Amino acid sequence: VIRFSFLCASSQPFQVFQITETGLMKFHKVKNVFEQEGFSRQKRGYRNINDIEVNMSDPLFTKQWYLINTGQADGTPGLDLNVAEAWQLGYTGKGVTIAIMDDGIDYLHPDLASNYNADASYDFSSNDPFPFPRYTDDWFNSHGTRCAGEVSAAANNNICGVGVAYNSKVAGIRMLDQPFMTDIIEASSISHMPQVIDIYSASWGPTDDGKTVDGPRELTLQAMADGVNKGRGGKGSIYVWASGDGGSYDDCNCDGYASSMWTISINSAINDGRTALYDESCSSTLASTFSNGRKRNPEAGVATTDLYGNCTLRHSGTSAAAPEAAGVFALALEANPNLTWRDMQHLSVLTSKRNQLHDEVHQWRRNGVGLEFNHLFGYGVLDAGGMVKMAKEWKTVPERFHCVAGSVQEPHKIQSGNKLVLAIDTEACQGKDNFVRYLEHVQAVVTVNASRRGDLNINMTSPMGTKSILLSRRPRDDDSKVGFDKWPFMTTHTWGEDPRGTWVLEVGFQGEEPQRGVLKEWTLMLHGTQSAPYIDQIVRDYQSKLAMSKKEELEEELDEAVERSLKSLLSKNN
């Protein structure tokens, strides 16, 4: 029996008739009747969480929701790193070494021992080759061991959980556990065995107290520069940095490690897609992974290895986010060992997903070439499956150029209630050898003093209309003397854009008390390439989507108009 609905101009507009195949043939306008066979079609890119077949014997594997999120611990199904797809493609981190720069690693742990790279490890706190954590009664020095398990915990050994790149090698660089840090310890750690270590994971930085402005010193800066230029046989060391745990009281653009162009700054989301309460937001964050949830569910934390052969469900913070990213990058490096440090940044921008991430304060937006970003999450959550697939076919990005686009040197006063608005018109060094046509990083080097530094707010808008929040209010920062001295505020939000045109800087105060200040310098630094074919394709796709969206809007308007006319007609007939 076949059911048909006919629209009739009568007091009963919708009538249903049941007609057999033979009866249907009796209608004079019906020429043929064919029985249709049903078959399957599937949405491409859609992943049913129940169809993922990954079997691990490790007892905590089912609790590692950031690997495969089935909704455990009140999470959102499907909101994870999509490692299952990368694993099923055969990528598990084999041949890649990740260094955990931290308070040491329990390299005797049965879930880490088989993947521990002793030759690439060192203890810069004690100056010996054995980076074992110093014992404390409260297990304070468990940080590095927990991070190491996220990356390289062995699979199918019935111990704890599974690392994102469970066949990778992990090196321990113990450098955090001493009364104070020195430039030479940081520099030595960051430059340790750069031809053996592929990825350096750092879950530390300046104090997250909402009033510190600090970054790498001279030796460490030189070590980073040498790493990206000479590490891995010239392909560049990959530095992964946690964006910071200062929450809404801080801004990670005040952290010179997380906001460096040479690092990949990673923020975190919780298992239902919201921001963690400790997340710092800033325009330098490139992408996100996961950390513990807001709810007091004991299984909402990050499951990983712990000191002295133990396991834990309570690893947390953006400390947990950076090692997960390092693991995803290890999968990509196995898929394509020729990736440069910049290739990894481009892949992060292009393959990270909005998924179901949402922030109560900052909305998702698109930049001038259509790339979707968020002030807190960067370009979204890392997608391991998407990244390894793109990495396999990836061609090394073109040469990178640097252009000083312009500078404002004369002093300008800032007062509460009035925004200071400055503009720089630039051709982005067009006609010169260092012309930048497609942006990667943009830096606004600013010197500014204020009666209360924490009330300063700085925004910058690109010629293609993308607004970056370079500095948000930091209510705990009472500084009135130091200010910012040639501080390089960085944004990744204009990635792929054409920098030629007018850049606008807005500086003002937010807060209850009136403040005053002086901006002494703003220098605009552009970093990028002269060619980037994939950007042109993204722009075409974006414009096509916009056109389709407008077409759909017109069709919806037309449908609504037809519906209104139809209702009016039926009303008259009634």
UniProtKB/TrEMBL annotation:
Pfam families per record: P_proprotein, Peptidase_S8
Ordered alphabetically, the record's keywords are: Cleavage on pair of basic residues, Disulfide bond, Glycoprotein, Hydrolase, Protease, Secreted, Serine protease, Signal, Zymogen
One MF annotation (Gene Ontology) recorded for this entry: serine-type endopeptidase activity
Q: Which GO terms describe its cellular component?
A: extracellular space; membrane; neuron projection
Top EC category = hydrolase
Q: Which Gene3D superfamilies match?
A: Galactose-binding domain-like, Peptidase S8/S53 domain
The answer, when asked if Kinase is one of the entry's keywords, is no
Question: Which residues catalyse the reaction?
Answer: 102, 143, 319
PROSITE patterns for the chain: P_HOMO_B, SUBTILASE, SUBTILASE_ASP, SUBTILASE_HIS, SUBTILASE_SER
User: What subcellular compartments does it reside in?
Assistant: Secreted
- Show where the P/Homo B domain sits: 396-532
Instruction: List the InterPro entries.
Output: Galactose-bd-like_sf (IPR008979), Kexin/furin (IPR034182), P_dom (IPR002884), Peptidase_S8/S53_dom (IPR000209), Peptidase_S8/S53_dom_sf (IPR036852), Peptidase_S8_Asp-AS (IPR023827), Peptidase_S8_His-AS (IPR022398), Peptidase_S8_Ser-AS (IPR023828)
Please cite one Gene Ontology biological process associated with this protein.
Answer: peptide hormone processing
Enzyme Commission number(s) from the entry: 3.4.21.94
Please give the PANTHER family that the UniProt record associates with this protein. Answer: NEUROENDOCRINE CONVERTASE 2 (PTHR42884:SF13), PROPROTEIN CONVERTASE SUBTILISIN/KEXIN-RELATED (PTHR42884)
Task: Name the chain's protein.
Answer: Neuroendocrine convertase 2
